[in-house]
Design goal:
The protein is of the alpha/beta class. The chain has two domains: about 160 residues, Lyase, Ornithine Decarboxylase, Chain A, domain 1 (Beta Barrel); about 170 residues, Alanine racemase (TIM Barrel). It is about 30% helix and about 25% strand. The strands form three sheets. Strands 4, 13, 14, 15, 16, 17, 18, 19 and 20 form a nine-stranded mixed beta sheet that branches. Helix 5 crosses helix 6 and helix 8 runs parallel beside helix 9. The longest helix has 15 residues. The radius of gyration is 23 Å and the shape is elongated. The protein starts with a strand and ends with a helix. The structure holds pyridoxal-5'-phosphate. Pyridoxal-5'-phosphate binds next to helix 10.
Amino acid sequence: MKYINNRLTVEKANFQRIAKRFGTPFYCYSYSKLKENINKFKENFKSFSPLICFAVKSNTNVNLIKEIKKFGLGADVVSLGELMIALKAGIKPNKIVFSGVGKTSSELNFAINKKILLINAESLSEIIEINRIAKLRNKKVKVGVRFNPNTDAKTLNQISTGKKENKFGVNKNTFHKIVDFCKNSKNIDLKCLSVHIGSQILDHKPYGKMLKAVNHILDKSDHKFEFIDLGGGMGINYSNKDKVLNYKRYNAVIKNFLKKHKVKIIFEPGRSIIGNTGMLISKVIYIKDSGRKKFIILDAAMNDLMRPALYGAYHRTLPVIKSNKISNKTYEFVGPICESTDKFTTVKKFQKLEEKDLIAICDVGAYGMSLSSNYNLRPKPIELLIKGSKINVIRRRQKHAEIV
Ligand SMILES: *Cc1c(COP(=O)(O)O)cnc(C)c1O
């Protein structure tokens, strides 16, 4: 993404022209960035060639998942819908892992039928339910247990999942109970220990602590696991102030762990694969001067991109056509929705904007469209995939007729 003749472009496509053709707001993704992210991710951990399962919840567009599949990635899913979309994208069941604290019987039945690689259970009750179904159907089901290592991921509280007060995974006691239960079951094949301590992690140290906790619990158990699933959570740089996750150090702790434990590693990255590939382009509808600041009222809103309203998340915002006129007032970028949290960002210094100008909200590839809704009965935006100068519609704009 760069400015060419003061026009923001991604690969060889110019946002202003795309907006003319497809209208606003729209999501667009860069194919070359996606490819770069996947290749870098593989390169970071190539010495032990992990199974990389894309966390589908970060972006559920079937056409993007198809592209991701072509690089050999599997899928991490958290619902029946996500499992179905992963299969629809052509991902083989033996590369799919199913996580989540509340899988229902029908979700488990479907997953068992499809013979997916692993159902990562998160409670003793879930293991008992899997066992009941498997017994009834006379099957042997491959499962993992999600362990809660009680490690602080040092990320936003709302997206932290590995502390004992979080609902995810099981503690040491329950872990050992589950191992014993599985030992006595003819229908469960306990193959994996999984962990996932949170999202947008930029410090490698929590991962080190997590592995220490995993090492510790493995020492206390005589069960032989085939897989250790380390989850995802690798952070990206939303702001220049963010630090950069040190993959070398993370890789080093895993390699050290593997010296002692002969297992296959699974990762479940979402954000680090797709986050910085996506942009949301929106048009300024009105500019309202409130005295102290100016409200830049956009045609995109919290229903299109919920992260700022949900987590107070920051996204860089850029003008689509650059000028050197600077505004004399603070700008607050807001949407048209009837909620005060429907705002994207506040900036003290920005170029002078006019009504009908276009702006780009950056790094929205993960948890952008997948968290979108029809709140205020607004149709969902179109999604485009940019490959060089080619623009592919990968999901059409929802029509009012579909929701009214
Ligand atoms: C959300 C989630 C992920 C992906 O997290 P990212 O921060 O997007 O990498 C991986 N595993 C599980 C179990 C999850 O819930």
